[in-house]
Structures are given as structure tokens and as C-alpha cells.
Amino acid sequence: MLKNLSIPQEFVLLALDRETNKLKSIFRMHVALYTVMACIVELSINGNVIFEDDDTVRISNLTSTGESYLDRTLEIITAEKPKKLEEWVSYFYYRQKELYKMVVESLVDKGVLEIENTEVLLVVPVKKYSDVANARNHIVEKIRAELLEHGNVEEDTLALVLFLNNKNMLNDYFSDYEQKTLRKKLDVLRKEDIYKKIITINRIIQNLDSGL
To answer: How many structural domains comprise the chain?
Structure first.
């Protein structure tokens, strides 16, 4: 089951606060947006979309992915006129909630997360999410095996680590020494196409935040 988790699913899981069991999207800006952009990266790796030379995102395969949130992403891309990657970042900057919620729900459906409804001060409803499958530890160990122990680096693992690095989430799971080693490995892999795409995503989000 855990082997079949996608990049957005893994990213959402690692955004789960280990102490409070709340999603870190509440406290960190753009976790939901990065999750949605991870959907596009996942579709690219799966061969459902391609990036043209000018970074225009084109549909290459409309076959169902088997995941509702990925199929919904394909529907949105198909319904809109062709856009470059940076235009999709701008598009989802204000339209991220639906897909993000679908990714979270997919983890619940898989039995990876369980939801507990609680209340703060007996008034404000709050949802807590329990990683009942211990999936986060499996994901972190996969990253260690591929990027810290000289294993083969899969494209989806590289993408996940880049998203985590952009959101300063590596320090949640790795020591200072491990983080330094991870970043050195990322620097070696900077010529990879997926690296360039995620760096572009991060740059556009920063520009939007700055009003540029």
C-alpha cells in the first residue's frame, strides 16, 4: 500500500505535525499550493502531461490514473486553455483548496490517515490526523536510502525532497548533518529536468508573494 503513494500524498503526510497531529498547512504558507503543484509533477512523471520546451503543460494521456485528485487535475488542465508552468502556479495560487482536500481524503480512504474530530476550548472544531500506517517513517527511510546511502535516486523521491526543501520541512525529519548532505546531493542533481521545474514553481510562488 505504502509503495503506491504519490508525491502529493507523501508531501501531505510529511506536512503532518508529529506532536499535534494537525496538518502543517494551517501554520505554513502554501503547503496546499505545493501539494497541488506536486499533482502536476506526478502527472508528468506518470506520462499524463508533458512540458514543452517553453514549459507549456500539455495533456499527453487522458487515461484515468486511478486517483481522483490526479484525474481532477487532468480535468482542470483539459478544460483550460494551454498554460505554461508559471501560469498554472498563478492559476492555483487562488484555487488550491479542492485538490488539496482530495489528496487528504485519498489518504483517509487508503487507511493511511485516520481523522479525529476534536474541539478547542470546547467550542472550535478541529480535525486531528493520525498516521496509523506509520507511513511517514517509511517515506523518510526511503529518502535516506536513495539520497543519503548512495542508492538509485528515483525521480519521484527527488521531487518530494525538493518540495520539502522549498518549504523548510527537512529539519522536521533529518539531523543538521543529514540536511547538509541532502542539499549537497540536490546540488549534484540540479541538471535534472524535474529539479528545474520545481525550482521554477518555487520562484513563481515567491514572486507572487512579493507582488511581482
So the answer is: 1
* CATH number of the domain enclosing 7: 1.10.3630.10
Nearest to 113 by CA among 96, 121, 101, 124: 101
Q: Collect all residues with Cβ–Cβ distance below 8 Å to 34 and sequence separation of at least 6.
A: 11, 163, 166, 167, 201, 205
Domain that includes residue 141, residue range: 2-210
How many other CB atoms are there within 10 angstroms of residue 206's CB atom?
12
162 with 198: CB under 8 angstroms?
A: yes
Other C-beta atoms closer than 10 Å to the C-beta of 82 total 11
Cα–Cα distance for residue pair 32/24, rounded to 1 Å: 9
**Which are the contacts of 64, defined by CB distance < 8 A and separation ≥ 6?**
71
Q: Angle formed by the axes of helices 31-46 and 68-79, to 10°? A: 90
Q: What is the pLDDT of residues 124-157, one digit of tens each?
A: 556 777 877 789 999 999 999 999 987 789 999 9
Q: How many residues does this entry show for the chain?
A: 212
Per residue in 28-43, pLDDT (tens digit) is 578 899 999 999 999 9
Sorted by sequence, the CB contacts under 8 Å of residue 96 that are 6+ apart come out as 32, 33, 35, 36
